[in-house]
Amino acid sequence: MGFWVTTLIFLLAGVAASLFTLLCCNRGPSTNLFHLTLVTTAVICCWMMYAIVYLSQMKPLINPILSGE
């Protein structure tokens, strides 16, 4: 459940950042598209980093070796 909740938070943050960019950085169609692309790419990259780290902890590649002591 934690993965999906955090994914929803990233989605909401992406929508909020996109709206903020469109409202505050209104300098022309080409510049607006560039800013919107940067914000979208940044949010997707942050979510992918979170998802990779979270999912890699579910099934680690290296298992710890427990000693019998």
Automatic annotation (TrEMBL):
GO terms classed as biological process: proton transmembrane transport
Transmembrane segments: 33-55
Subcellular location: Endomembrane system
Alphabetical list of InterPro entries matching this protein: ATPase_V0-cplx_e1/e2_su (IPR008389)
Presence of keyword Transport: yes
Main localisation: membrane
Keyword vocabulary terms for this entry: Hydrogen ion transport, Ion transport, Membrane, Signal, Transmembrane, Transmembrane helix, Transport
GO cellular component, one term: endomembrane system
Protein's membrane topology: Multi-pass membrane protein
Segment forming the signal sequence: 1-17
Entry's family note: Belongs to the V-ATPase e1/e2 subunit family.
Name this polypeptide is given: V-type proton ATPase subunit e1
Organism (species): Urochloa decumbens
